[in-house]
Specification:
The chain has 14 helices and 30 strands. The chain is an alpha/beta fold. Among the domains are: 127 residues, Sandwich (Immunoglobulin-like), CATH 2.60.40; 104 residues, Sandwich (Immunoglobulin-like), CATH 2.60.40.1180. The strands form 7 sheets. An 8-stranded parallel β-barrel has the order 11-12-15-18-19-20-21-22. It has a 6-stranded antiparallel β-sheet with strand order 23-24-25-30-27-28.
């Protein structure tokens, strides 16, 4: 397993667990405890909120916190384990003795155990030794630990989240850049395989090394956001981060929590938003993790028909348990608060919504009304979105949801789940299916490429060409494309042009932007060396140009989720496999005409109906030589004639290159 390149730890406050510029909490200081014999961070109000499932900042109370008590600095520990008979803390500080540091169960029936340990501070490694009421003996990490040992070690580490943020300008203005009426072009990436250390290719880049290389690249490519596949602590690297044991800790493979904050800070200071994958749908059964935490099914549903995920061999949270709702929503708030995250992409929402997801008859139980919907999970997702947008109205939540469940991205008060956006999985499947066809046969599948506009405005859709499409034998996007080498690259550019001009926001997985030919493998760096070839460099240049066009042409983003922002001019020319449509902004002078030739046959001329008379300029042509196109000579400007065509009173005779997208704007 590759190791992260070691980096010098940042200077941090020796105690305290808050961070600056937080919208929720003040600058930190060592917490001075009561001089009473027993110290607790919990008030009666905290306990009542926790029991009711309404405590959304549990990370301020649970876990380990350096405090001062009775004139002595030490660490306060608190853990929820209602079915434990006894709990003690073991670590380097007591030689991993299972009994020398007992915890005390609170008297209020909350199931919370707590204690104060003098002379234990940041950097101390520890676990909880739990003896359950059934007599089972368990060694567990801290569910609220802010840092963990690097895998394969599994202990928690006393730490804090203090960091001197420098992204004030971004945080104060991100509502202007993160809104639904703004361009959102997301670069999805797996941290461990984007690139490896230049000095030692088997080593991961650290968070700080990544800042030096990723920020300039994203600026060059003009992506508006980066989305990291889960960066929470996970013991098994091939899970890509989706099997989490430390929900409140940055993955230790790449550095400290403050190192990750530095990376996010640098992205923000350069105007790049940060989206983080979040996994409230399931967790693994590792012995040190959440599974059977106190000897009982505490975090997971006790009935395995609702508590076990057959696809991922993992365990499903009990969404009907109030304390679990507090845990999960607090976790979402934590990343938005302490790490200044700008959006959460929620993984596997479909698996949460349906009780029969990936289950056969007899393997699931209906809800109280006899239906297949998971009412507890639905209620949880609504509450999650209400809390997130209530506290952070300038962030976005994005659902990976693959079914026709209604109202995923509609407000809760209108009966929806409350997400800001939803992945448009139908568009992805139909589009890739179409582009995989030999162009000669595309005319027989024309409806696949046009059908998405029938439902494109039923949700706030994000168009994803994600990691899921380039793994498990599916091949790379480039190698899905038919034809010889030139046609493969032309088809790929055409696919991207269609994606960036289709209504909705955009997401592109790393490597796709330069046409990587090899299927993605998390064990290796991307094949950056292929950029020595003009074909791959051409795709990269084209994606950069598309991002620039998308960000600078309001017609491509102002009405991304409204049917008024799109109009078919020619959607039925299956015989020629040509599409013509208009994208519209708030002002008519911003409107664009998009023409796609989905075959390698030049169309000279091709008549296009135009909505407004006058002179129209080509603002994008995917067939240009700089993009590794054929460089076919075409006009740069076209004057309309009064010949009516395609329902329009004006038209032009357009030179249409092979396998190309041509985009026009009125001068």
């Amino acid at each position: 397993m590759a190791k992260a390149k070691k980096t010098k730890a940042p200077e941090i406050t020796p105690a305290g667990d808050d961070n600056s510029n937080s919208p929720l909490i003040p600058k930190p200081e060592i917490k001075e405890a009561s001089t009473d014999e027993f110290y607790s961070r919990f008030t009666d109000f905290d306990i009542n909120l926790f029991k009711a499932g309404k405590h959304y900042k549990l990370y301020e109370k649970m876990g380990s916190h350096v405090v001062e008590h009775g004139g002595v600095t030490g660490t306060y520990f608190a853990v929820w384990a209602p079915n434990a008979k006894s709990i003690s803390i073991m670590g380097n500080f007591n030689g991993w003795d299972r009994s020398s540091v007992p915890m005390h169960a609170r008297w209020d029936g909350s199931g919370i155990w707590e204690t104060f340990v003098p002379a234990v501070g940041n950097g101390e490694v520890y676990k909880y030794f739990i003896r359950s009421n059934s007599g089972e003996e368990l060694e567990k990490g801290d569910p609220f630990a802010l840092r963990w040992e690097e895998a394969p070690s599994t202990a928690s580490i006393v730490w804090d989240t203090w960091y001197e943020w420098r992204d004030k300008d971004w945080m104060e203005t991100r509502h202007q850049k993160n809104g639904l009426n703004q361009p959102t072009s997301v670069y999805e990436m797996h941290f461990g395989s984007w690139a490896r250390s230049l000095e030692s290719p088997e080593e991961f880049l650290s968070y700080r090394d990544m800042a030096k290389r990723l920020v300039p690249y994203l600026l060059e490519m003009e992506f508006t956001h980066v989305e990291f596949m889960p960066l929470m602590e996970h013991p098994f690297a091939p899970s890509w981060g989706y099997q989490i044991t430390g929900y409140f800790a940055a993955c230790s493979r790449f550095g400290t929590p403050q190192d990750l904050m530095f990376l996010i800070d640098e992205l923000h200071r350069n105007g790049i938003g940060v989206i983080l994958d979040w996994v409230p749908s399931h967790f693994p059964g590792d012995a040190h993790g959440l599974y059977k935490f106190d000897g009982t099914h505490l975090y997971e549903h006790a009935d395995m028909r609702k508590g076990f995920h057959p696809d991922w061999k993992s365990y499903i949270f009990n969404y009907g348990r109030n304390e679990i709702r507090s845990f999960l929503i607090s976790n979402a708030v934590f990343w938005l608060d302490r790490y200044h995250i700008d959006g959460l992409r929620v993984d596997a929402v479909a698996s949460m919504l349906y009780l029969d997801y990936s289950r056969k008859a007899g393997e699931w139980i209906p809800n109280e009304f006899g239906g297949r919907e998971n009412l507890e999970a639905i209620s949880f997702l609504k509450e999650f979105n209400e809390v997130v947008y209530g506290s952070f109205p300038d962030v976005q939540t994005i659902a990976e949801e693959s079914t026709a469940f209604p109202g995923v991205s509609r407000p809760v008060y209108l009966g929806g789940l409350g997400f800001g956006m939803k992945w448009m999985m139908g568009w992805m499947n139909d589009t890739l299916s179409f582009f995989e066809k030999d162009p000669y046969f595309r005319k027989h599948h024309h409806n696949r490429i046009t059908f998405s506009t029938e439902y494109a405005f039923t949700e706030n859709f994000m168009l994803p060409l994600s990691h899921d499409e380039v793994v498990h034998g599916k091949g790379s996007l480039l190698n899905k494309m038919p034809g010889d080498e030139w046609q493969k690259f032309a088809n790929l550019r055409l696919l991207f042009a269609y994606m960036f001009t289709h209504p909705g926001t955009k997401l592109l997985f790393m490597g796709n932007e330069f046409g990587q030919g090899r299927e993605w493998n998390h064990n290796f760096s991307l094949d950056w060396h292929v950029l020595e070839h003009a074909s791959h460099q051409g795709v990269k240049t084209f994606v950069k140009s598309l991002n620039h066009l998308y960000r600078t042409e309001p017609a491509l983003y102002e009405k991304s989720f409204a049917f008024e922002g799109f109009e078919w001019i020619e959607g039925g020319d299956a015989e020629s496999s040509v599409l013509v449509y208009s994208r519209k902004g708030n002002h008519q002078q911003d409107d664009l005409i998009v023409v796609l030739n989905l075959t390698p046959v030049p169309r000279n001329p091709y008549t296009v109906g135009m909505p407004v008379e006058g002179e129209w300029k080509v603002v994008m042509n995917s067939d240009e030589s700089q993009f590794f196109g054929s460089g076919m000579v075409t006009g740069q400007t076209y004057n309309t004639s009064t010949a009516a065509w395609q329902g329009k009173s004006q038209s032009i005779q357009l030179d249409l290159p092979p396998l190309a997208a041509v985009i026009l704007k009125k001068i």
